[in-house]
Amino acid sequence: MRRLLAFAMGVVWGGGTMWFAYNYHVVRTESEWLLVSRRGNSIADTYADARTWTTEDWRERPRLTYAMIQAGHQKVLESAAADQLMDEIEQRLKRTSELLPPTTRQ
């Protein structure tokens, strides 16, 4: 009887886990964990660590991106775009300063 109960509990646990995986995205951002309702029948991107994602990473995951926007978490996407833009500006400034003659460098 104990084995049957353990088996039944395993089935319930596994079924609940699969239900969760098919219905939600768990997204880790810089400051928080987000639980976002999933659109569609796939377990892709059940867990996503988006702390270092760029706009390209978001573009590669359109279902997750759509779910984040629908849930009102577009700030996460905007933050990734802003971070990427700042990185590009810093790289261009660095390249420009390397091209300047030594007397004008600070």
What features would you describe in this structure?
This protein has one domain (2-98). It has a 3-stranded mixed β-sheet with strand order 2-1-3. The chain is elongated. A hairpin with a 4-residue loop joins strand 1 (24-28) and strand 2. The protein is an alpha+beta fold and 106 residues long. Helices cover 58% and strands 12% of the residues.
Give a short account of the largest sheet: 3 strands, mixed
- Number of E-state strands: 3
Strand order across the biggest sheet?
A: 2-1-3
* pLDDT < 50 runs, ≥5 residues: none
DSSP helix count? 4
Separation of termini? 79 Å
- Residue share in β-strands: 5-15%
- The gyration radius over C-alpha positions equals 22 Å
Please indicate the count of domains: 1
Q: Whole-number average pLDDT? A: 87
Write the element-wise H/E pattern from the N-terminal end onward: HEEEHHH
Structural class: alpha+beta
Shape: elongated
- Helix proportion: 55-70%
In a nutshell, what does this entry contain?
This protein is of the alpha+beta class and 106 residues long. It has four helices and three strands, in the order αβββααα. β1 (24-28) and β2 form a beta hairpin.
